Amino acid sequence: MFSSSHPGHEPDEYDTLITRPPGNLDEETFGSTERRRQLEKTLLRKLDLRCAFLVLVYIMNYVSATFDTQIPNRILSETQHSSLQMDRNNAAVARLEGLEEDLHMSGTQFNTLISILYVGYALMQTPSNWFLSRITRPSVYISGGISLWGLISIGTGLSQSYYAALISRFLLGFVEATFFPGVLFLLSRWYTRSELGLRVAILTCGSSVFPHGGDKLHALPVRTLNGSLLSGGCFSSRVQSLSSLLVAAFFIIPDFPSSPARWLTREEHLLAQVRMEEDICGLEQDKLVQSTGHGLRDALTDWKIWWLGISLSSLTSTLSFGNFFPTLCATMGYSPIITLLLCAPPWLTGTATSFLVTRHSDITGDRFWHIAGPMMIGIIGFTIAISTMNTTIRYASFFFMTQATCCICSVHDLGKQFDSRIIIKAGLSGLLSLTRSQRSATWELHTFGRRSGLEEDKEQTTGEWLAVSEFPTTVHVELLKARRIPDPFLGLNEWEVQWIGEADWAFKNSFIVTEKDLATANVDLVFEGLDTFASITLASIVSSLSEAYLTRASERRTYPRFIAYRAPVKPILRVGANALLITFSSAFKKVTNCDTFIRPPLTALQGRQLEKTNGKFHLWNGDSSRLHISPDEVASYGWDWGPILMTIGPWKPIKLHSYDVYLADLDIRSVISEALDVKLTVDLSLSDISFSTVTASVTLMNPQGDVVYKQTNIEVESGHARTESEFSNGELQLWYPVRYGEQPLYTIEVAISDATGQIVDSKTERVAFRRVRVIEEPLIDQPGKTFLFEVNNIRIFCGGSNWIPADSFLTAVTAERYRAWLQLLVDGNQNMIRVWGGGIYEADAFYDTCDELGILVWQDFMFGCGQYPAYDSLLWSIEIEAKQNVKRLRHHPSVVIFAGNNEDYQLAESINIVDYSDETSDFRKTKFPARFIYERTLPSIVSKFCDIHYHRGSPYSAPGVVTTDKTLGDLHQWNVWHGSQEPWHNWDKLAGRFVSEFGMEGYPSIRTIDYWLDGDKTERYPQSRVNNNHNKADGSLLTGREQLYLVENFKHAFDMERRVFRIIPLNAETLASAYRLWRRNWRGKGREYTAGALVWQLNDCWPVTSWAIADYFLRPKPAYFAIARELRSFTVGVTRKEKTTFPDELSAAKFTIETILEVWGTNSTLDERKVRMEVTFFELGSDWTDRFAEDVVLQPNSSTELFAGQLPGQPIRTKLSEVPRVIVASARLLDESEVVLGRCSNWPEPFKFIKFPAAKDLGLVIQIGDDGESVELSTKKPIKGIVLDVEGEDVEWSDQAIDLVPGDPQVIRASGLNGRDVKVRFLGDGTA
Fold first, then answer.
1. d(CA 627, CA 874)
2. In the sheet where 1261-1264 sits, what is the strand order?
3. What is the reported pTM?
4. How far apart are CA 995 and CA 965, in angstroms?
5. Which pLDDT tens digit goes with each residue over 51-66?
6. Long-range contacts of residues 589-592, Cβ cutoff 8 Å, at least 24 apart
7. Which of 444, 633, 903, 1088 is catalytic?
8. What is the pLDDT of residues 301-334, one digit of tens each?
9. Does the annotation mark 726 as catalytic?
10. Strand partners, 550
């Protein structure tokens, strides 16, 4: 939204608008001002003819009501005859006709009958206009209302009792509310403020003349002819006339200007939209980007709207005397016919006066006196009427009374001064719809492309604009909310929305600039992020009653998604209304021509044409053109876990910034010595280096808000200032990763003041103090070097996950959703997250949450799996993007490393285009030009603007060394799943110094699968087309890799649910085994053979089968819990290996096979821990058991070897035909209070060879806790991989994929269980 803001970026990091002298919009768009005037006359003539029909419909409704009085008594009963006149204001005539006697009414029942219509009317206005404001076909909606109106009117006439009439009148008011407020809203969308008053007066007076005059005249033939003149055909003729009106209304009533209008030429249609934009821009508004909720809030807090609503309600109540007007006339003593005839002249006079008053109000622009004057005259009439019974004077007072109707017309027109296009006579509906009706106060969306490539869709290029529901936003999000596209997350709908990424789109808005905004020396328009090919047009709108024109400046350029930029716009802006148009061109297709006003032509070429110009480069995943569109969220192009959804739109805020000078840069750095002393430096830079007489102040506050340090009157010279301060160890609290200490966050406030002491600008940053180093030093006993993170002199084993964008639609990710994901990470005992280089630089909320939770962040630059070019125009944007994001992220204590790319070196190696012997070249002319980016551009930016460690890529070993080297740097270990497809039991052999990627694909919850199947049970099997579409990995389910691992290790079936369950232990065992074995490699200082393991991946961006350990809906997979167990502070690990010995090295016939058991423990705390180790052995097919226990000491921040020897109970084998006994080993670590600190079960593998006992023989007991929110599990036989579930709503389990052994019951927390029965699945449960 547009608001005052302090972007805090240096001006040289931004491109600026290319300005040109203001031009005349009429000449640019319509040829000339005279041509526009001619078009406007034609438009108004066509529009008046159509809108006149609305007045006719309104009149006919009242007239048709009076015709009911002419239905002869020989056809209807007396009761029906009088009740037929009960349509709205005709009730007064019905009263004279004897309605009260016919319906046997007494007391105040007639008054109730009158009032009940307005109850229904008031109740329906809110939902009616709320709905009308959200559809594009008011012709259909209003026509339907007319039809119901007529039908219920007929039903009212057939009422023969008081209560039947009461219900009919209520329903009549209910449906009548769809017409008059709706028509007012529709008129206000076509007519300007200078035109609307007269049209409203015509509509309003039409309703006044006929109910209060026409019905009286029609009473004459009814009384005199008494049924002899007309036949019963009059009754059916009314039905026929209503049907004719309905059909005519459907074809004649116009829709909104933003909807297609075949009755207008293209120029006239465009002019209609321009007129409304110009007219609406004179409104006062504080915010330009609002949702309906914001609009409701603003409306409810606007006193003018309350005043208008109360005034309308009061006036409407006052004018209800019209319902009793015949009764008032009857007090003069004349016969009923004369009485009714006397009613007409006062109303005709009031109608004529209304026209004159409203027109004069429009010409003069005055509203107050044109409302107050008629009201005063009306008051005089009421006063006279109650003061005398003189016939002449009393009759004259009636003429004064009807003058009060003039004020209603003026109030209706006044509504547009507040742009209450919906609020007029619509009560709360106006409050709900105010922002929606303020089209200039709401972003709108438009496409220039066809819905698809089909020939029949070529006409779908009409100028419809959709109101945007929220801001920032993107096209898919808005089309989804408007129900214009199917949900691409369901079924095969992904392929129904591909046209969006290949269409051109536009967003428009307008905003008010005040004199205060322009009083400063500079005014900038700041764009924090546009996606991606954007053209910007800013126009100043000047309106008057006679003409309107725009002055414009256009800027046309490609804007990479991750670059923020500002444009100096003060020369263009004017006090009052200003308009902003942003057009986005497809990242795939070539530029196409379009109307100059609607879409200025782009000079930037899109990805495909850039590729054609600069050459095609290699990549993994997605479309190769993405490599030319600067760093981008490459996942939009499709990945092996994500859909192809090319997003477009203003995905980050847009702000207006007025200033004389501002803090352009704030560089806060802390250097912490080995002794943990802190040296704090604050460097600030102003936007204008020539700005003089400015001083600065710096304040440091602790987490409690107490001032720790403050320095004032800091001299600013040449736009720069610097301050330094030092603190001894202990004076400041240090920031630690989760489970290693606290995360105290300090606040630094920097302000600049002028010579008078007035604060000119200020900025606040949240910081923390920690000493972080990436240690690469020689190892003891093994080749290579460490690659580990040290925080405050503590070496940290990093167990964590990789992070991809949390949604295919980035604006859908809220701060709360970020926190939920990152809390899930912490709850899973993880301490690091890697922001993958194919995603985005995440929102501030992501990094803020990491700071608060103590999560270490590995941040990739946004280059992923590609052979990126390095031509000058691309480098320009890369440098700006890198600089901006380094500056944005550098103050976050959680960010501990920047890596240049994701797998780009690996790709270069795969196609043999990298020469590692060359470390000195420019690289831009080589086959691997991106080395210039990773080895020259990015390291220089990181070293200049922060103190964070830079790593050339991920994976990257060392200069001159291939990325697959396991002894240096970080490693992506994909030889399980990809590559050589090693067994997961070999993770220890596949270890690297820091494994930053590895994984195993797994199904999500069956609930998530059912979600994307969207109720289609015919697709609920593993190989179905829909399930295949929701698994983007090549060679995955049933086609290769996953099938391989299933067949090698498990018995399995092929129905959906059993298939899902079989993947669970595969996924869980694979990942848990990796963490278990690699954490064993963390053996103390100098022996940190593996210092980290980051699983691919934590999250999903849509509902899909992938490597994520929690699915799109944050439902953790069982693998999540298996990993969490391996990352506890204390763990125990068990492995078995078969050792084959050949006594005679020349013979293969004789050998022995021993099964060796190894047990180790880990301790991530900084103190040694005494524990009791218990290892118990069970033979699955018998009652044999064995056990040993030993007191051991776990070394601090290290693994400790605890046991190695022959597996008890397993004999030495001499033949392969000798089947080993199925012995399960279960190890536990217990503290002095017998609390289990860690447990691990080791089963013989592969599991497919195991003959599991029958489920009924296991002795499994499932006991629901007394609180209904916990489950205790116990067994008499070992059970592998228990997964818990329930029918109905999800339960938050504290553990899953559980190994259970006799004598070791486990209690699982189950939030949301509510005492329900629990279902269990496990290996060998008989379902395979």
1. 10
2. 1261-1264, 1270-1274, 1306-1311, 1292-1293
3. 0.72
4. 11
5. 777 777 666 655 544 4
6. 589/502, 592/448, 592/504
7. 903
8. 666 666 666 666 666 655 556 656 676 777 777 7
9. no
10. 541
